[in-house]
Design brief:
249 residues, Purple Acid Phosphatase, chain A, domain 2, six-stranded mixed beta sheet, 31% helix
Length: 249
């Protein structure tokens, strides 16, 4: 089966629609790693679109929790909190309920599992090998897909107990890079962020996973950032959140 793996859409409809247009019909099922909403201007439109895709698995993100009222966003930055509270006010009752009912990771899917942050803690960031090692130690599953950092790539634990950072170089424009998985290794794979990349590349990021060929196909693609920025400005969302979209930071 070929899975389309989405993460950190963050209420960015333009980014999501660009990804789905590229993906076309080249997948059998959709999986979402959380943070459907937050930051961006299209909370209901994005939530409706994700629901319509009928994902085989979704886990909640920290912004999903804050925007539906499970948490109070007190640990967010001021700008993120402003966006979360704005989102909570504009979400329909149906979408608020959908977000409240999302499950906490880890969640098994086929021969892998999905989390938002880490295997240990759904809100924990996995930026460095030492953090990855803690997640590897807590699971026997060979592949874990995670989000939260908004940084495409991941980590691999070889049978020598050596952790390697997976650095992805995707060509310009709409392009992909393929990673062939080693059956003797364990992986933490981050598909990147659809709605707010933070790895210096403003293009939307996502990936495919094929459980037959055991390959991950990382994608990056341009989208109409200015459209999302205009909507954010009209909604009165914080200017730093608007500016960062074009920077990929």
């Amino acid at each position: 089966m070929r899975y389309l793996i989405l993460s950190d859409v963050h209420s960015n409809l333009a980014g999501l629609e660009a990804a789905l247009k590229i993906a076309g019909e080249r997948f059998d099922a959709v999986v979402c790693l959380g943070d459907i909403v937050g930051y961006g201007p299209d909370a209901n439109e994005v939530t409706d679109r994700v629901r319509a895709l009928k994902p085989v698995a979704v886990v909640r993100g920290n912004h999903d929790k804050a925007c539906c009222g499970i948490t109070d966003a007190s640990d967010f930055t001021a700008n993120a909190r402003t966006a979360a509270l704005w989102t909570r006010d504009v979400l329909t009752a149906e979408n608020l309920n959908y977000l409240r009912e999302l499950e906490q990771g880890p969640k098994p899917v086929g021969d892998y599992q999905i989390v938002h942050g880490s295997v240990r803690d759904e809100d924990e960031y996995v930026f460095h090998p030492r953090e990855a090692l803690e997640s590897f130690a807590l699971t026997e599953v060979p592949i874990t897909f995670f989000g939260h950092t908004h940084m495409q790539g991941g980590f691999v634990l070889r049978d020598t107990n050596r952790i390697q950072v997976l650095r992805v170089a995707v060509g310009e424009g709409a392009n992909a890079a393929t990673l062939e998985l080693d059956p003797k290794a364990k992986y933490l794979i981050n598909p990147g962020s659809i709605g707010q990349p933070r790895d210096g590349d403003p293009r939307a990021g996502f990936c495919f996973y094929d459980d037959h060929t055991h390959a991950v196909e990382y994608w990056r693609l341009p989208y109409t950032i200015a459209v999302t920025q205009k909507k954010m400005k009209e909604a009165g969302l914080p200017q730093p959140l608007i500016d960062r979209l074009a920077l990929g930071r």
